[in-house]
Amino acid sequence: MEDVLIIGLGCAGYTAAIYTARYKLKTLIVGQEEGGMGMTAAEVGNWPGDIEVKGPELMERMKAHAMSFDSVTLKVAYVEKIERVTLSSAAAPRYDFARGACPERRRRARKITRDDTAARIEGSSATVFKVTMSGGETAEAKTVIFAMGSSKRHLGIPGEDRLSGRGVTYCATCDAFFYKGKDVAVIGGGDSAVEGAAIAAQVARKVYLVHRRNEFKAEPYWVDRVKAKGNIIMVLERNAVEILGEKKVEALKLDQPFEGSDQIKVDGVFIEVGSNPATDLAKQLGCELDKRGFLSVKADQGTNVKGVFGAGDVTNASNFFAQFATAAGEGAVAANSVFNYLQGN
């Protein structure tokens, strides 16, 4: 029986694991992709202590930190199902307060008997959480932190799915290398799109940055960089309506002409139009979502379901400011809340 199950192998998940481990909580962290979306960040220039660091390097360091604790177990697996299981009071899991890492909390914990706390938290029965992973393996935990992040959003235009993997990709920073000396289009106006265009411009012959508005919502640092690149062509106030090509991408069709034509001849299309929160597992437990589909959390990162917390891009916390720093902060808060919950506070 784990004290806490963390689902998600990204910045929020790794940070939460570091904190739960320091609280001496038996921790299982599981996810399908190590590093999560952090692996797609070519350059991270706002992580405190590093003037510039590559996303994959930062994720590897976070993982190594989390795994330096004996109380942390990591599994790379797809979580298919999560459910609540009720145990009798005789089998109810109880947290051993003496393991807490903080001296102040240890002193306070000694004032609370294990039986009293079990009665306060559990009553006559206890609810734990059971997950089923790919391959049929299962695990149980007293608490859960959802840190699944998000997945890339699709445009839903003709040719997108058919040509996916044949010139259509959702990560310019990951795949730009394959288009050395070629012409590509990057679609979007946020940080990932503008950063992706700047990275692609280092290897591509031309980069068409297609955005439906006249101004970008990306960080000014990246906007200035793309404007300084001589091989980035701004295609503003236009929408991509179709991706053309037979066996591979050949052109991008627009809703109105650009430089006399509604088609731009390109070899690759990078779609960077945001992401959707990965909330399927949270919905299985009945967790509330906000109107945008993000996991609703309170100031302590708790959800409406007792014993369930959230952190990172999957939540509506930090004013939707999806950054490494905010994800790490939410992971730390969630871990602290798990510790307090297990104490009965």
UniProtKB/TrEMBL annotation:
Q: What is this protein called?
A: FAD/NAD(P)-binding domain-containing protein
The chain positions of domain FAD/NAD(P)-binding read 3-329
One Pfam family per UniProt: Pyr_redox_2
Q: Name the domain of life.
A: Bacteria
Instruction: Kindly give the SUPFAM superfamilies that the UniProt entry links to this protein.
Output: FAD/NAD(P)-binding domain
Q: Is Repressor among this UniProt entry's keywords?
A: no
Record's keyword terms, sorted:
Disulfide bond, FAD, Flavoprotein, Oxidoreductase, Redox-active center
Record has Flavoprotein as a keyword: yes
Q: Which PANTHER family match?
A: THIOREDOXIN REDUCTASE 1-RELATED-RELATED
Source organism per entry reads Candidatus Kaiserbacteria bacterium RIFCSPLOWO2_12_FULL_53_8
Any GO MF annotation of the entry: oxidoreductase activity, acting on a sulfur group of donors, NAD(P) as acceptor
